[in-house]
Write a structure and sequence with these properties.
By secondary structure, the protein is α+β, with helices and mostly antiparallel strands. The protein has a domain at 160-430: Lysozyme (Orthogonal Bundle). It is built from 14 helices and 13 strands. The chain has a five-stranded mixed beta sheet with strand order 9-7-8-10-11, with no helix packed on it. A two-stranded antiparallel sheet has the order 1-2. A two-stranded antiparallel ribbon has the order 3-4. A hairpin with a 3-residue loop joins strand 5 (73-76) and strand 6. Helix 13 (389-401) packs antiparallel against helix 14. The protein is elongated, with a radius of gyration of 50 Å. Mean pLDDT is 81; it is low at 1-26, 87-134 and 136-142. Keywords: Disulfide bond, Plant defense, Signal. InterPro entries: Glyco_hydro_19_cat, Lysozyme-like_dom_sf. Residues 84-160 are annotated as: Disordered. It comes from Clonorchis sinensis (Chinese liver fluke).
């Protein structure tokens, strides 16, 4: 066999198979004529640089004899190319505009922010900047500029009574009140049979007093320490009359508001009959008949304290008698039986106990011939002459302290003298005159 022929045939067979599977691509240089030279697939004139003598604009270059813009630029390369502009970012900048209003009496210039939008290169982002609003007011006498970036919450204004009597005043006038002094803790200890831990609260706190004032205002007694048409001195005089009396009713010497209830009833060790058990002419009032037990947290827990409900003195003015408990209960709850059945609520609820004193000070029951304390402490309101502090004593305890003289020797004289001393002490604190302009401080010549 001729091996050379076999190899040739075999190689030719392989070559033919390769060409059969090949796609023919035209050669770009085939288009060049005899006067051109093919360089990198581009036909250029033979014998020289095609860009010789070609002048392009800014940001452009000659390529193969023609001007083209550089990368990142666009436009006419013969005259100059400019940067390609990308996506637009919207940025809002507040530019104040001014509005001026003129009236017959004043000129007002108001500056109000107005948005303007400027495009800037870069990714799409929305940014807002706000300048605070400025208002300028010009009058014939002054120019006022006020900048208010945002609304602010204003504090609640103090009530008239809070303006008249501050927390510092209250603490200064009653430094040894219930539970708040070392002296009190000497009188009330766990070793005493009537003591119970729940009594250790600031019963006569300033907050409780203000809450009671607001509660009574909502019940129709808003003139307490706030009588319309009166002077600041007049209202401070009423305040001192109220303080002078409650300090006496609850005081240990000069220490006002030291006690909460009548001591003989508070400190009983055995069974007592309930005190002050009368409802007067109020035939629809029913006094509590159920025995009252010592509290569970006292040493006498489980033992009877009173055979029936007791209406002895409780709170700042020592509210006493069944008819007063029934009347106050009716005023607060619409039902006299609430407090007739449970008079100790005045001790358990400090605001209620203080409210009872304000209610008594402001009301005029049909049986009280001497009018209410609120009216008789104002000269312009009192129909009784002479007016003043002595009349408030008569309204509170006239049956026992009538016709009493300041610095006198009788028991009634001494009680009235103590009340007047507390009244003067408060008046000196607030720097107001008392016992002038026809005001009588004691009860001499006054009868119930």
């Amino acid at each position: 066999m001729n091996w050379s022929i076999y190899i040739f045939v075999l190689l030719g067979h392989v070559t033919i198979r390769s060409l059969a599977n090949t796609v023919c691509v035209p050669d770009p240089c085939d288009s060049c004529n005899s006067e051109q030279t093919c360089m990198n697939g581009v036909c250029e004139p033979a014998g020289g640089n095609p860009c010789d003598g070609v002048v392009c604009g800014t940001n452009a270059a000659c390529i193969h004899g023609s001007c083209r813009c550089n990368s990142g630029f666009e436009g006419n390369p013969a005259h100059g190319c400019t940067p390609v502009v990308g996506p637009t970012t919207s940025t809002t900048t507040t530019t104040p505009t001014t509005r001026t209003t003129t009236t017959s009496s004043a000129t007002t210039t108001r500056t109000t922010p107005m948005p303007t939008t400027q495009p800037t290169p870069g990714p799409t982002t929305s940014t807002t900047t706000t300048t605070p609003t400025t208002r300028t007011t010009t009058t014939s006498s002054a120019t006022t500029t006020r900048t208010t970036p945002m609304p602010t919450t204003q504090p609640t204004p103090a009530s008239p009574v809070e303006q008249l009597l501050t927390r510092n005043d209250w603490d200064a006038l009653f430094p040894n009140r219930w539970f708040k002094s070392p002296l009190w803790h000497l009188h009330y200890t766990p070793q005493q049979p009537w003591y119970y831990p729940q009594m250790e609260v600031d019963y006569y706190s300033y907050e409780n007093f203000i809450d009671a004032v607001k509660s009574m205002e909502a019940s129709g007694h808003g003139k307490f320490l706030n009588e319309p048409g009166t002077s600041l001195e007049d209202r401070k005089r009423e305040l001192c009359a109220f303080i002078g009396n409650i300090a006496h009713e609850t005081g240990e010497g000069d220490n006002g508001l030291f006690y909460r209830e009548e001591l003989g009833y508070e400190r009983t060790h055995g069974v007592w009959n309930g005190g002050y058990r009368s409802v007067g002419s109020r035939s629809d009032y029913k006094m509590g008949e159920t025995p009252v037990y010592f509290r569970n947290t006292t040493k006498l827990a489980g033992k009877i304290r009173f055979n029936s409900a007791s209406y002895h003195g409780r709170g700042p003015l020592q509210l006493s008698w069944g008819y007063n408990y029934g009347d106050f209960s009716k005023a607060v709850y619409g039902d006299p039986q609430v407090l007739l059945n449970n008079p100790d609520r005045l001790l358990d609820e400090p605001k209620l106990g203080i409210s009872a004193a304000i209610w008594f000070w402001m009301t005029q029951p049909d049986w009280r011939m001497t009018h209410n304390p609120h009216n008789v402490i104002y000269k312009q309101l009192s129909s009784l002459k002479p007016w003043g502090f002595g009349r408030t004593i008569m309204a509170i305890n006239g049956g026992l302290e009538q016709n009493a003289v300041e610095n006198g020797a009788s028991d009634a004289d001494k009680k009235v003298t103590r009340r007047i001393k507390n009244y003067r002490r408060c008046a000196e604190y607030f720097k107001i005159p008392v016992g002038v302009d026809g005001e009588q401080l004691d009860t001499k010549g006054m009868w119930n």
